[in-house]
Known about the structure:
- The protein is about 10% helix and about 30% strand.
- The chain has helices spanning about 10-20, 75-80, 145-150, 180-190, 235-245; strands at about 35, 65, 70, 85-90, 105-115, 115-125, 135, 155-160, 200, 210-215, 230, 265, 275, 275-280, 290-295, 300-305, 310, 320, 325-335, 345, 350-355, 360-365, 375, 385, 390-395, 400-405.
- The strands form five sheets. Strands 4, 5, 6, 8, 9, 13, 19, 20, 21, 22, 23 and 25 form a twelve-stranded mixed β-sheet that branches.
- The protein has two domains: about 10-40 and about 55-250, 3-Layer(bba) Sandwich (YerB-like fold); about 265-405, YerB-like (YerB-like fold), CATH 3.50.90.10.
Amino acid sequence: MPDFNFSPKIIAGLIAAYIASAGVTYAITPAPSPLISPGSTVTQEEPGKSGSFLQYANEPKTEVCPLNGALYSKSEKALWERRRPILTMIENHTDARPQSGLSLADIVYEAVAEGGITRFMGVFYCGAQQDVARVAPVRSARMYFVNLAAEYNTPIFMHVGGGNCSRDEASKQCTSNKKAWAIEELAKLGWRKPQGNDFDTISDIGYPVMLRDYNRLGADKQLATEHTMVGSLPAAWKEAEKRGYAALMPAGSTWLSGFTTWKFDAESNVTGSPATNVKFDFWANYNDFTVEWKYDPASKAYLRNQGGQPQTDLDTTTQLKASAVVIQYVKEEGPLDEHKHMYYEVVGTGKGLLFQGGKGMEINWKKAKQTGKTIFTDKSGKEVVFLPGQIWIELLPSASKVTYQ
């Protein structure tokens, strides 16, 4: 690929132009993100170089994760208690698969980003304390994901740009619908500011937190630029600590003390109809995004297939799985504008389904305000109890059909 040698003045001008179009007005000087070009390699000098996904494997699993109830070692707990979660936007285009990091997330959200193509938001805290943990490919934010991220008590929010005003230079008018303005919403939340908790390569985050790796899926597979951004979780936590976004909040309380947890019980008496095979589409006739969850009694988890194939984690090589799969029916709006932005209403109330332990049941959900926690209840109004382990929350348009047996 050709080499481009931009002067600092030109780079600053390009960044300033972007901020103006996004409606965000602070000055930034991001660290450069090096490229790993096809056929080349790079050495990263940050944590993770000598570790492995097995460094805590021999330690007893005695510590309960507050996000999903899974058990981890004392070493892992000692690390997460010094930090706050990292919520990362991860794309799901067919050319971007397999992704890195999804098997390490405590919770994963999935919803359509645009054109029937879904996107993930992984919540990384307890399960991602390995010093080699990375996430990829990191992509742009959407308003509904921001609204969900807001219930995590000012987390680290990692992404590459997002829906914004998209101002037309001739008319000076925004070309996108306000419901798509994720970047402006991050500013309203107070996250998008110099040295803030909004970790966006288009603002003030660069290497070693994120870099582009054109060989992410192997030197023999050509990748478009949008499929190449890789985020380092250890480097992100290190940067967050420098910025004052570790475990302690401004008032001196811990991050966890202000976070609302769900209920978990490994001995919970799971009720409902048999549901060992769960299948659904986000949009009709988008077969590459058809999801199928198959219950595996041996692991007591649902194994994930998408587009008719097992969906795996590139780095751990394992098939993605979930102890609990939540179908959250939401109101769908869009395309909203010429950019084909979509909007899903995640604040309010609605219906859904819960699958765990090989059974399925009807549930309701409620999120009272943007920063409020989404609470799931059974038909009697009692809060559901999750089996410990990774939780997937699938945001489906209200009219979507889910089949299970």
